[in-house]
Amino acid sequence: MSNGSTGSRNLHTSSTVGLAAVDNRPFNPTLFHRRTTQTEEEWEEWHRAKDASKVGSRVTAESMEPGAPSTISGPSGVTASVGGQENMKRLAKISRDFRSDTITMPTDAQLMAGLQASRGDDVYREDDATIALEQRIARLTGKEDAMFVISGTASNQIAIRTNLTQPPHSVLLDIRSHVHKWEAGGMAVFSQATAHAIAPANGKNLTLEDDILPNLELGEDVHIAPTRLISLENTLSGMVFPQHEIEKIAAVAEEHGIIMHLDGARIWETAAKVCEQDGKNGEDGLQEVMTNLCRPFKSVSLCMSKGLGAPIGSVLVGPKDFIARARWFKKMFGGGIRQSGGIATAADWALTNTFPKLAHTHRLAQKLSSGILALGGRLLVPTETNMVWLDLSSLNIRAPEMIKRGREMFPENPLTVGGARFVVHHQIEEKAIDDVLALLETFKQDMVREGMVSQDAGVSEINEERPQETLSRPFPKLGY
Ligand SMILES: Cc1ncc(COP(=O)(O)O)c(C=O)c1O
Question: Which amino acids bring their CB within 6 angstroms of ligand 1?
């Protein structure tokens, strides 16, 4: 199902909806350096040629230190003449930073696209690029309407507030979910809602029989706030929520007039996985997959600034009247954005250019988790998309020591790791995966030296009691 807008479009080429609204003028290098319809590769190619000939080059004292190399090894996307040396160095550092997928850097091409965007006032609904992005996401998700907001937290909180009306009411959700645990208690403040937070019996995702049905409050007992909303998260800690289970939950919710909301901050990861598995390509393939994933929900919040790599922004989708009311709360919460075209276009660009790279990040994450298992390490949860959760105790690791070794082992190119969670984002380079495994190997060698395990301790020796025990234990560590 689609709610109109344009026809098919190649994700790899560019956003004709988002960008046609921005600027149709012919390419003028002295004005803008590039057409927004160029892909990142074309942009880089053009830029290399420009740097080589020095035509129109804009190398300045700020962007190029004396004697500095014109390129720094690491992922591409930032050039000295546009982004400056410091940002090139920062990008090289980020290519070895596993803390989150929010730390990716906007590329030159992405920001240049934003530079060309329309500059209307979105509170007046006069910004073409913002409206175009909203229409694109509404069409992709099969929803009637969409609203661009500043963050995933804003999007979730506005959605919950808009969906709920008068207390007493409660929201049924996973105890690890972002809306419950990581949004500063916003649900209680903005929506006066009680959370009925459940630890899934299977340790992975809520199921209808084991978690939802036993905890559904149908409003017959005056002591208990009735369930008015079920809020799910996909992916949660990198794990894909099985769609058949979501559909079962949605059917029961509908029976009882309970609203379904999805925190789809990382739904793009699920979509990338499904597209890969089912051979779906391009904008039309993505639309089919996303529409299916979002169908059971009245409202869905989608983040552009996680795996997709937008510098800022999320989009809330839902029925027309829902989005119309959500716009009141967006304004009330101080979230109205005036000239939002630049950031909306950078987000649109991210969807077009980065979404096709997500499947590769999943392959790198698999490489990391297979390497961990081969070392005899254990995973806290299965690796299904771009996150790897290491049970630090399985390799006798204390996080501060791992963080320190990550810096010291590679003084030229330090590894930045956060703790149990390793997030593979689109600017991570493969060499960094090998280096993380080398870092973890040092802890294994410590264990061997101390006689805790044998040198050839592998999956069977250390992991045989998994996965059930692993899955059910570590709730407090997961979820952001
Ligand atoms: C699952 C999930 N939902 C929502 C958010 C909130 O996004 P933001 O940081 O943009 O407020 C996050 C942020 O990490 C998240 O991981």
Answer: 151-153, 156, 178, 233, 263, 265, 303, 305, 314, 480
